[in-house]
Amino acid sequence: MFKIFQPNKIFRLTSKAPKYILFLFIVVLSIGLMEALILSPEDYKQSDAVRIMYVHVPAAWISLGIFSAITFLSISGFIFKNKNFFLISKSLAPSGFVFNIIALVTGAIWGKPTWGTWWAWDARITSMLILALFYAMYLISWRIYESDEKAFKISTFITILGIINVPIIKYSVDWWNTLHQPASINILSKSSIHSSMLFPLFIMTAAFALFSLLIFLMKYNTELIKIKNKGLDRL
Amino acid sequence: MINELLFMNGYGVYVLSAFSFTLFSFTALYFVTKKQFVKEQNKFVAKFGLLNTDKARSAKSQRINKEILANATNN
Q: Considering its fold, how many domains does chain A have in total?
């Protein structure tokens, strides 16, 4: 079932795709920046500070999405004994980690004008910081362990522990009294954000998703060449 | 117009620093990843060059190796 996804078969595609995705990313990002910084309206309460939302929210969404995908792929890798799943997880992690850092830093910058402080140990912010630590541990585990088998086991264990934190991040604003506002966008109910702000938010999310796809493909190709380098040593 | 865009009712410093940090992180991650890719690709080409004819023929029988070499010469 997974044979069509074998690295040998998809390398032609994954090696050619990055330049087209880079081009598409630049186009979508340019539109997103124009919408976010110039065309979208200011908020009646937060004024222009609301524009930070257009980088903060997509970064947080994507870092959570990537961590969930990494966990799913790592567990699937174990169940189906498929090394390619681990390779995909490993290649997704760097962009997930960077998006997590962006969410934390832009959140701190947004916090200063709206809450009067750069940082607060509230549930949402602290749980996002914990996610960054799990990302860091995951990335370090691949560097520390020479043996692939050991790295597979340790990195999967880290993702299983880390995934417990994901629903905590999502529901922290409902479960506890936090400085952080509750979610404004919900798949199951009507959004409390006006469409004039939703549009730039989705454009920026699309741009960020394209960027993480670009980094994933570049990293995945690097990992494949690393494996082939080892193969040449064995010849 | 430009002043308004930069000042943003007094929030310009926060908004622009958040966007600048994001774009800087993107640029840094892109170039670090690109550097790692080029390094591995060059290592592959160098190792391939050291193989004798038989081993090189055997390695070239794998389509992915041919693709890596072709990409390295195109870049």
A: 1
Which of B10, B19, B41 is the closest to A55 by Cβ? B19
Domain that holds residue A25: 18-35+50-181+195-234
| Subunit contact B18:A56, Cβ cutoff 8 A | yes
Q: Is residue A6 part of a domain?
A: no
To the nearest whole Å, the CA of A183 is away from the closest chain B CA by 21
Mean pLDDT of A73-98: 94
Place of tokens 């840094």: B28
Question: Which pLDDT value is given to residue A147?
Answer: 79
CB A60 within 8 A of CB A203: no
B1/chain A closest Cα distance in angstroms:
10
**Nearest CB neighbour to A98, from listed B9, B12, B25:** B25
Whole-model pTM above 0.90? yes
C-alpha distances out from residue B33 to A17, A37, A148, A176, A198, Å? 15, 28, 21, 39, 31
Partner residue opposite B26 with nearest CB, options A15, A105, A211: A211
Global ipTM: 0.92
In a domain, A9, yes or no: no
Measure Cα distances from A112 to A19, A49, A106, A108, A210 in Å.
38, 10, 10, 7, 30
